[in-house]
Amino acid sequence: MTLYGMLFHIISAVIIAATAVAITRKNLVHAVVYLIVSFFGTAMLFYLFGAPLLAALEVIIYAGAIMVLFLFVVMMIRAESAEKKVFVPIQWIPAAIFCLIYVLVAAAMAVGTPGMNAPLKMLSASPAQFAIYVFKYQWFSIEVVSMLLLLAVIGALNLGAGRRAGRVDEERRIEDDSALQ
Amino acid sequence: MIAPFSEVLVVAGILFALGAFCAVVRRNLIMIVLGIEIMLNAASIVFVGASLHLSNLDGQSFVLFILAVAATEVSVGLAIIVYAFRRTGSFDPGNFNLLG
Q1: Burial class of residue B80 in the structure, from the number of CB atoms within 10 Å of its CB (0-12 exposed, 13-18 middle, 19+ buried)
Q2: Residue A130 falls within a domain, yes or no?
Q3: B93 within some domain
Q4: Mutation choice for B interface testing from A19, A74, A146, A150 by most B CBs within 10 A
């Protein structure tokens, strides 16, 4: 086994272990912090697979922005008392059986398919190459994604502040009405 | 020489199954959204691995779009969760049983 193969196995073991610990935590802050560990491992995996820009974006966006957003929400609202029991057996046993069957079948399929067992070569796409490729061939998808992000900002603002703004408007309307009378 | 692509698929499959398990079993809205995040992450690992396997940059650009969609989904999803918590005072999806 080469050095890179060994690195791949170590990183994947850490990712799977951190994710498995994260989804079984009762305390939401612990779960989010374990997931940050898992996403750092994913970033290292991306770097190993020759995507340094995506590795940086994974750390900045996933481990940085998204998980901090989760932490903000968990800390803003007292969320500890949400669940009395984390795992109810009648719910988790069927789910675990189905997930296990899927993983086993998918693993058998992946290993059995010809052409899958050749080791991957080390290749790397520099950020400049990747950016040129994206803006040359995928520029329309970039525009669609930018529209999606704009809509997300509008939607989140509307959900977060919409009711309060509406109430203020209503109060002002009532004041206006009384002033008119 | 890294590991074969089949092993990448197996690792991503295990991660995806963990995320699906989390989204199905946990009775807490924040953990459900976290499970969806884990599933998206597993999908991006497969995309980057396939991009290396096929020597094609399309896989990597897909991961860029997955990142944008994940950010969108989390911001709107968490806003909905906070809104629902303000209305019902609970994170349990079983308590959201009122229309309107």
Answers
A1: middle
A2: no
A3: no
A4: A19
pLDDT digits (tens, 9 = 90+) for A58-114: 999 999 999 999 999 888 887 665 566 777 788 788 888 988 898 888 888 888 888
Q: What's phi and psi for A82, nearest 5 deg?
A: -70, -45
ipTM reported for the complex, 2 dp: 0.90
A129 in contact with B at a CB cutoff of 8 Å?
yes
A43-56 residues labelled b (16+ CB within 10 A) or e (exposed): bbbbbbbbbbbbbe
Same domain, A117 and A150: no
Structural domains of chain A, count: 2
Indicate if A116 and A144 belong to the same structural domain: no
Nearest C-alpha of chain B: how many angstroms from A139?
10
Q: Does A150 lie in the same domain as A99? A: no
CATH of the domain at B50: 1.10.287.3510
Q: How far is B59 from chain A (nearest CA, A)?
A: 10
Do A52 and A126 meet the contact criterion of CB atoms below 8 Å apart? yes
Is B15 contained in some domain? yes
In the stretch 46-65 of chain B, residues with CB closer than 8 A to chain A read 48-49, 51-53, 55, 57-58, 60-61, 63-65
